């Protein structure tokens, strides 16, 4: 099988000194592959080496079965577009002119753009929603706008492969989502292969077909997000000592408030999430229950609560769970009902609210 990109036994680095070694992976046409890992791990170095901006210290890279090192520069420029961290800052150039640089692999020696080239520039600016930036000074626009212009320049090359280093840096959430949606559409509809690095692991989990974990001078794992984004893997990759990564929510959580519980939260079906976060922000230790282990509240409560009283999914509340919850209610000053829904499986949990009312501790969240 001929892959869009295939790396075999790479060692990459500077001045003959490897930063990352033993790199091997294969990327299919139209896949989005994202490099993740801590700062300084070597993600940018790998991307520069794939783009032939750094000489490989060992191993080979093939594009569609052809050795990257043997490709003529013009052919490589037509097949691969690159936007790395060291962004171009041309003097006295408009954004449109900066985008036009992407057409140079197709122009003659003087770099004169044909009507077709001009049309490609217009289309690229339109795709990244930067048409209104065309006549503005490239060095006078914001960092986020510059990122979109550089992506448009890459699109102008009509490449088979786009290599991007932290393309969402400096973008607000709207433009992050717009840019990633553009990349997803190009990959799915046009078969363009995207290789990039991202710091936002929640976005990497959602957009990527494959993930490259760069850790400790090597690639620790290469595979689909479902295999990579586990709590243990992300904790190890980033050496997390505070907080945790939650694969169910696709994000990180700050540490729970420790100490004697001050609140018991009655919730289920997501009603407890805003209450849990509010208590955490205030530094109030709390307990939660009675929650089935497949409930959305359970996934967050087990990271933020001091204790969670649980029940089996689709089963009835056990005597032990009910007794433990009642004991905890007796020990805390406050009981907050976040909007618990009572059904056949947790009908016995009504006793918790009744006990809290009897003890004068019951509070109902009203939105």
Task: Note poorly predicted spans.
Answer: none
Report the principal-axis shape.
elongated
Strand content: 15-25%
**End-to-end distance:** 57 Å
Identify the CATH homologous superfamily of the largest domain. Answer: P-loop containing nucleotide triphosphate hydrolases
Determine Rg (CA atoms, Å): 26 Å
Give the rounded overall mean pLDDT.
Answer: 90
State the total count of DSSP E strands: 17
How many helices? The count is 13
Biggest sheet record = 6 strands, mixed
Helix content: 25-40%
CATH class (first level) name of the largest domain: Alpha Beta
Strand order of the largest sheet: 6-7-8-3-9-10
**CATH T-level fold name of the largest domain:** Rossmann fold
Name the structural class: alpha/beta
Core attributes:
367 residues; alpha/beta; Rossmann fold; 2 domains; 6-stranded mixed beta sheet; 5-stranded parallel beta sheet; 13 helices; elongated
Structure description:
- With 367 residues, this protein is an alpha/beta fold.
- The chain folds into two domains: 5-246, Rossmann fold (3-Layer(aba) Sandwich); 254-362, NAD(P)-binding Rossmann-like Domain (Rossmann fold).
- It is built from 13 helices and 17 strands.
- The strands form four sheets. Strands 6-7-8-3-9-10 form a six-stranded mixed β-sheet, with helices on both faces. Strands 15-14-13-16-17 form a five-stranded parallel β-sheet, sandwiched between helices. A four-stranded antiparallel β-sheet has the order 2-1-4-5, with helices on one face.
- Helix 4 packs across helix 5 (143-156).
- The chain is elongated, with a radius of gyration of 26 Å.
- The model has no long low-confidence stretch (mean pLDDT 90).
